[in-house]
């Protein structure tokens, strides 16, 4: 029980650090994500009431906190965002993993200090994990950045 309490305190402290080091929009997004710690995983889920899968969680956070609508699936989210090097990660960037024998089968949101928040898998809940853990290091397939604004020409279909 003490270990869990210490982890919670550390996550709260990390959240406070994140709030002071990133822009207002990212701050708002990560703050929203942290309020969803503990929401259960649900395959195909995209709401805090019923649960999230990984891409549903990411999509929900971006849509409700910064007004950006991302595609529904993790592989589509990877295709629609800008590729960056792992050493360029900033809070709010997306991190992708091969957890189902295919590239970009899992996604989370980088929060800083080598950590990311995500909806891991059945029987688990939204949580923070460390990118440096052996499991995630072995499966890491890329980092992506959601562009600030998308330019669109209203005259093109």
Give an overview of the whole structure:
This protein is of the alpha+beta class and about 160 residues long. The radius of gyration is 15 Å and the shape is globular. The protein has 5 helices and 8 strands, in the order ααββααβββββαβ. The strands form 2 sheets. It has a 6-stranded antiparallel beta sheet with strand order 3-8-4-5-6-7. It has a two-stranded antiparallel ribbon with strand order 1-2.
Throw out a few tags for this protein:
two-stranded antiparallel ribbon, globular, 157 residues, alpha+beta
SSE order and pairing:
Blueprint: H1 2-21, H2 24-34, E1 46-47, E2 51-52, H3 54-66, H4 74-79, E3 82-84, E4 94-97, E5 106-112, E6 115-118, E7 127-130, H5 134-139, E8 140-145
Antiparallel strand pairs: 1-2, 3-8, 4-5, 4-8, 5-6, 6-7
Helix pairs in contact: 1-2, 2-3
